[in-house]
Design goal:
Length: 353
């Protein structure tokens, strides 16, 4: 029996439904797409596609899908195109199971009395991390290049202790402003801010893209860490977490500039962990896999597009930024007391594929 589908039902539930699946596939086919494009977002509610598609999947389309399901308006071709295939004889394979939806569980008071700087706090993983720290009692110095995004974040957490700082981390004066806003005690730093490249291999890469990616992903994060370390050394205590990437663990996740920059982030993590570990400062990194953020991947190279897409053949489902914030805040907090110099692959298993 067909279950009741709504805008809040997951994409996977829609695709697997005997009525909703054919209707959704028909809609995609009309746009020249297959259901494969939705595989990374199977666990998300269908209505989330409105925001993620940036206008390509408007609310009216969601309403139309729900109406068609309620009316049983299944395309005439569905009986042949959507029939379940009969498995051929051969080796037994293990099918990927739909995991239960993850529910965030806030640890009240985990950051009470601590000041934590979070960059990229206006959106994506940075925002989710800053939110988690704030809801767990921390004083958050929320850094972002966008005043509008920071205003929205502060308004969303009106009762929290948040110090918004509009700053470009590549600018030395901006770094000084962040430290001044934080005050004398900085207990932790989450270096989240970063940008993607244009997926070009070395021979097609431009100096402009290379310099911009390194300026933000490497130079800016290094400068901010350099600024917070002296105070941590003085107190013999502190935690720094870099956000690296799956591109720091493999060569198939992005272009040359982004991949090299995230390898550099791992180098900074390892070197700093070795140097400062005996002084009470823990330095670690989190390497996210597919995550739903506002960072877009643009393909400026046919070769880059072909090779990167081939490497993403085993891409696991994308997750919400909250799932990455759980990994980052674990390392930022005292819960990560015995973890130093590690790169935590928070990637849904992509790194073992």
């Amino acid at each position: 029996m067909t279950q009741t589908l709504s805008a809040g039902s997951s994409v996977g539930t829609w695709l697997d439904d005997p009525t909703g699946g054919p209707i959704l596939r028909d809609l995609l086919a009309q746009a020249g797409q297959s259901a494969d494009v939705l595989r990374p977002v199977r666990k998300l509610a269908l209505k989330r596609l409105v925001t993620l598609s940036k206008g390509k999947f408007p609310p009216e389309l969601i309403d139309e899908l729900v109406r068609r399901v309620a009316a049983g308006d299944v395309p005439a071709t569905a009986s042949t195109t959507d029939a379940a295939p009969v498995p051929a004889a051969g080796p037994v394979s293990v099918a990927a199971a739909e995991r239960p939806e993850w529910v965030e569980r806030v640890s009240t008071g985990r950051f009470t009395g601590k000041t934590v700087i979070v960059t990229g706090a206006g959106s994506g993983i940075g925002r989710a991390t800053a939110s988690r720290v704030a809801r767990e009692g921390g004083r958050v110095v929320a850094v972002d290049i966008s005043q509008e995004r920071l205003d929205d974040f502060v308004a969303e957490h009106a009762a929290a202790d948040i110090v918004p700082v509009v700053a470009n981390i590549t600018d030395d004066d901006a770094i000084a402003g962040i430290i001044a806003a934080a005050g004398e005690q900085i207990d932790a730093l989450a270096n989240v801010a970063g940008i993607m490249d244009d997926m070009t291999p070395v021979h097609e890469g431009s100096d402009a893209v290379w310099k911009r990616v390194f300026a933000i992903n490497v130079d800016g994060t290094m400068k901010l860490m350099r600024a917070v370390v002296p105070g941590m050394l003085e107190r013999q205590s502190g935690s720094i977490v870099y956000v690296a990437s799956e591109a720091a663990l493999r060569g198939s996740a992005a272009g040359a500039a982004y991949t090299a920059s995230k390898h550099a982030v791992v180098g900074l993590t390892k070197s700093s962990a070795y140097m400062y570990g005996p002084s009470g400062i823990r330095v670690n990194a989190v390497a996210p896999g597919p995550t739903i953020t506002n960072i877009e991947a643009n393909f400026a190279s046919a070769l880059g597009a072909e090779r990167v897409r081939a490497g993403m053949a085993l891409l696991p489902n994308a997750v919400e930024p909250d799932a990455l914030a759980a990994s980052i805040t674990f390392l930022l907090s005292d819960d990560g007391v015995n973890v130093i110099g590690q790169v935590l692959a928070s990637d849904g298993g992509w790194s073992v594929a």
